[in-house]
Amino acid sequence: MQMDTPQHAAVPLSKEQIRALAAFENLVSERIIVIQTLEQCLTLHDQLSSIAVFGFDSESKPTFKVGEKSTGPHVIQLATHDTAYVFQVSAEILDFLRPILENEQQLKVGFGLKNDAHIFRSRGIQPASLIELSKSFGSFGYRSQVGVQTAIALLFQRYLAKSKKISTSNWAVKHLSPQQVSYAAADAYAALLVFEQLYQQHRFTPQLQQQIMKILEGSTDKA
Fold it and tell me: 3-state SS of the chain?
């Protein structure tokens, strides 16, 4: 995806400045694969196993009552440069994804992953090599954590629209709407693009930068 990569802003962008930017270009629908069965998963096994870095996110049906426990994740998204995989979670699909989620040699990069990790641990999965992107924007003038929308605006001068109506929709439905599918794919795909820019610009801590480099070099050696 070709987008401008200007020098970072000296001060935080306002919501108005972000909304005024050109629209973020998500992957086309033909490059977004919705997976609902184990059979579909198995056809993707080899290609998923060979990928070193995934844009990563998950979605859960929202809870509205006090004390109500989430039954998520209901959707798990993994994205590469040219494809977003949107998994509608079942016990079988979660077992299929476990080796990827727990693989220390496959990076899963995204925003707000602390909550995702908590949800996965409650399902008996110990995710490894999660890279939280929200805390790497101090040099851009941000003292607090940054979301994917602001990150895309800072790094690419693009506006990634985020619909609260879709984000809080029922992700446990049998058939996701086209809007849900596009929203889910964009979050993971955008996270991957942000990760690559932060890595190339050496925005991570030296320790994390080195850790990432080792994993990427290891995947290149295997190839």
Answer: CCCCCCCCCCCCCCHHHHHCCEECCCCCHHHEEEECCHHHHHHHHHHHHCCCEEEEEEECCCCCCCCCCCCCCCEEEEECCCCEEEEECCHHHHHHHHHHHCCCCCEEEECCHHHHHHHHHHCCCCCCCEEECCCCCHHHCCCCCCCHHHHHHHHHCEECCCCHHHHCCCCCCCCCCHHHHHHHHHHHHHHHHHHHHHHHCCCCCHHHHHHHHHHHHHHHHHC
User: In terms of pTM, does the model score above 0.85?
Assistant: yes
Residue pointed to by tokens 């930017």: 21
pLDDT digits (tens, 9 = 90+) for 50-79: 999 999 999 999 876 776 677 889 999 999
- Displacement of CA 222 from its chain's centroid (Å): 24
CB proximity list for 82: less than 8 A, separation 6 or greater: 27, 31
* Residues 76, 3: Cα–Cα separation, whole Å: 26
φ, ψ (nearest 5 deg) of residue 133: -90, -20
CATH of region 15-61+69-170+177-221, choose from 3.30.420.10, 3.80.10.10, 3.30.450.40, 3.20.20.120: 3.30.420.10
The better pLDDT of the pair 221, 218 is held by: 218
CA 176/CA 75 separation, integer angstroms: 10
Distance of CA 8 to the CA centre of its chain: 22
Report the alpha-carbon distance of residue 42 to residue 39 in Å, rounded: 5
